User: Which sequence fits this backbone?
């Protein structure tokens, strides 16, 4: 522990009190190791400010002392953005003590919250006021709103309600120099000047720390219909989606592609699950319709099934006749993610292409993967309505562990090349952080790189916040700031 | 005409051909006078490039020669942003020849278009493919998509579909130095790095020229229900809105407040209109439900009426029983704007507050206006669902014309002060341009001003594009660049 570290910790302790600082290495464990088990280095300290003003004071101190900082939410990101660095010790600024629901206005359909609020708590508070906050993620029990905003989170309801970007009306942000910037107004429309708010959303903690937000709510759905439909092919799933969009008006809230292998993976992870259909089919679609008003959703669903059968894009299906049965169907969606983890290390991707190109993209990706690694298992599942698939690869059991990193790199490169062919994205919802940086930069035009770097310089000329995430460190920074 | 002008015109003519340049003052009329009749100065030239590459070449030339430019769409803006300057002659870059629909993909629900496409043409092309582009504005017969994006246009369907910002998936922009920046991908989700796209949307032609865009479509509604409901008060209209959001699920596509005086104004402008209800009421709501699928919208509307009567927020109403009758009701909404123009010069505002504060805001604004100008007529109408009202003032007939500018300034200031009291916005959808600049800057924090100015510098360090719009000219620019 260097002198600088001691001085900083003493300052933070005086400012925030004992509960506001985690100084000892053994207590820092949960701040240095993310959801996916990744870890890099140890922090200089972990601070846990309780108010926006405290966050600002911490940041001002770090800014003056040229100490690097990394904001941390629920630590459920998948691109290593919130992990403390392994070269230069950073101060982890955790928002976990800032969990206040500031104001909920059901007539305005808005809710002002602290950045550290857990997503599930936000959803619950909305529901208690007969409203609904639509962001819906596997990690919602631990991810925080500030992190959701910093990473522009997605999830299963995007096709109806949009990404996090579209659910934020106001923001409060502590900038890298400790100034507080705020647009905390509960306005559904505000068209004044350049949207700093939109620039900050999705900046992954590199331009500022989200300490508060005004969220957009909708009426709470009073009813929903969930169905698991068997479809003959990925292409049929895409055609079924177009039908579902039309028949479902704007009431379609989820439309997930689930290949057969994913069902099997879910059964492995959750043995209490059983096959919802009598026969085995190559692909399934899990869909949901929801409404807050008097609509007969079952008529809508029957209409869709009928049209789907007629167009031969639906082979079979089960409609949940109760909430319990619907939950059971959604357990498949969750279980298949767990099932992949149980199979051990695997390649995860998060790509998007135009919806109309999904089937061909999956086909080409499967061919590329088979060529490189004939015995591995490719699974392609996800959000058809967003053109967003997770094309993952589970390596053959016989592949030696030490060969995996190189194999994954090769496979990822091959999948990304396929995605490039459709003008797709190598990161549809997970962001860039560290793990997608190389692939991201390789696809960036020099014009865009210049603009992005200049914007980072406007907000954080000394590269003190989230340094090295999204954009690489500027050359000069690699030479200085070592302690 | 200076030598520099001749040289520039010669260059443009060689580059674009005769049809690409409007050099003579008499032909420039429609480029120097906007929709609302505003005019400032004459341009150095008007150029009409036909392709993105031509736009880029024009801009590169202007950038090299340090000639100021102003992009121009359909010229229907309300804040004088596209008017050529009166101090320094600018080159008007009109997109009107770039009207190509590049690609429409109904399976992906996307459409790629040139920046100069007229909004109505875009809507028509979408409909021909059984899709729908939801942006809906009074000016849609002449406004252009590029301008809609540059100004982040709003309109009557925002409560359901969002502002223009939420309808754009990809952009193609010529930057102030002539470089082309593009995110022209037809992706519903793409979460890579800072969103330059969102920063450019709403930048009002000061950071670049929108030459192309990928737009998000929805299924084409197959049915709609329109109703004009009489409500006892503005507060009742707000409560009715909350009901309508719930009962209407997400199928409510418009909800407009229309005070009685606006009905009268509509009758003045369109004498063929007649009062749709037998009695006279103080306020009305014009609402629309629309769906692409099998939903019984009339049941929904009956449900809403019943609940509204029970809660005493609906007094009376007429449901359009045919498309012709619905169009007739919408004519009232359009006619009342024309009716205001017929009454002569008047104050227009475009404010927003939280929906729950609308009634009190209107009350306070009316009181403030009455105090200052007892005989003038205040009308407050607009988009309840967005908290966005146009609080306009028609001066008393006896007010002398030369007294109007000072009166309007005073009244506007008083209304804005009321809006400030509710943490509202002085520009909900019209943008800043020139006419809102003073009010905008007066409310800008020094932090925000510094960030915005720095961002402008990143894109346009010499202040050559849209100079003086949104942000004031930097001091140094006021002293140089005169020719």
Assistant:
């Amino acid at each position: 522990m260097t002198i600088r570290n001691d001085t900083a910790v003493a300052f933070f302790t005086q400012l925030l009190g004992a509960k506001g600082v985690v100084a000892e290495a053994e207590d820092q464990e949960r701040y240095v190791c993310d959801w996916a088990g990744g870890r890099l280095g140890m922090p200089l300290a972990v601070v846990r400010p309780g108010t926006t003003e405290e966050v600002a004071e911490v940041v001002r101190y770090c800014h003056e002392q040229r100490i690097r900082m990394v904001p941390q939410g629920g630590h459920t990101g998948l691109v290593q953005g919130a992990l403390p660095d392994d070269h230069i010790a950073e101060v982890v600024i955790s928002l976990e003590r800032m969990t206040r629901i500031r104001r909920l206005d059901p007539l305005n359909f808005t809710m002002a919250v602290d950045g550290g609020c857990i997503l599930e708590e936000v959803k619950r508070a909305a529901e208690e006021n007969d409203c609904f906050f639509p962001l819906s993620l596997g990690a919602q029990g631990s991810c925080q709103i500030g992190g959701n905003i910093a990473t522009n989170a997605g999830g299963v309801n995007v096709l109806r309600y949009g990404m996090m970007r579209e659910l934020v009306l106001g923001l409060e942000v502590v900038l890298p120099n400790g100034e507080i910037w705020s647009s905390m107004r509960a306005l559904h429309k505000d068209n004044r000047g350049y949207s700093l708010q939109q620039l900050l959303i999705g900046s992954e903690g590199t331009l500022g720390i989200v300490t508060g937000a005004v969220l957009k709510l909708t009426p709470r759905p009073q009813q929903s219909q969930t169905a698991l439909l068997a479809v003959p092919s990925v292409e049929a799933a895409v055609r079924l989606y177009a039908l579902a969009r039309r028949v479902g008006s704007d009431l379609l809230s989820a439309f997930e592609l689930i290949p057969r292998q994913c069902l099997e993976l879910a059964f492995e992870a959750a043995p209490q699950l059983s096959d919802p259909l009598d026969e085995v089919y190559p692909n399934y679609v899990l869909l949901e319709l929801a409404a807050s008003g008097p609509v007969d959703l079952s008529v809508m669903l029957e209409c869709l099934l009928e049209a789907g059968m007629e167009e031969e894009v639906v082979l079979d299906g089960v409609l949940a006749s109760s909430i319990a049965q619907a939950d059971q169907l959604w357990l498949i969606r969750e279980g298949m993610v767990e099932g992949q983890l149980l199979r051990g290390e695997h390649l995860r991707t998060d790509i998007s292409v135009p919806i109309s190109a999904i089937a061909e993209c999956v086909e080409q990706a499967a061919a590329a993967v088979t060529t490189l690694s004939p015995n591995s298992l490719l699974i392609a599942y996800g959000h058809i309505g967003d053109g967003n698939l997770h094309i993952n690869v589970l390596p053959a059991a016989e592949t030696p562990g030490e060969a995996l990193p190189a194999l994954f790199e090769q496979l990822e490169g091959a999948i990304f090349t396929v995605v490039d062919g459709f003008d797709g994205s190598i990161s549809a919802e997970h962001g860039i952080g560290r793990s997608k940086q190389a692939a991201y930069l390789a696809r960036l035009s020099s014009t865009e790189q210049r603009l992005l770097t200049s914007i980072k310089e406007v907000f954080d000329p000394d590269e003190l916040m989230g340094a090295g995430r999204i954009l690489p460190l500027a050359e000069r920074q690699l030479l200085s700031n070592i302690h």
